[in-house]
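Intended use. Records like the one below are meant for learning the mapping from a protein sequence to its folded structure. Do not use them to infer anything beyond what is encoded.
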Amino acid sequence: MVRREPKKVLVRLDPAVHAAIAKWAADDLRSVNAQIEYALRMALDQVGRSPRRTED
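Structure written out for the chain above:
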């Protein structure tokens, strides 16, 4: 089984956006990084562009 390494991306956020995401993450017991990925996946689902997961 091959494990894929996650891509590393530098994201610049407005401090108010970061604070809102950090509060949302704390409410959901996630890290800020995990919350950003969660929000991106939700947005992709909404526009019909969800990535297909492959079983290794």
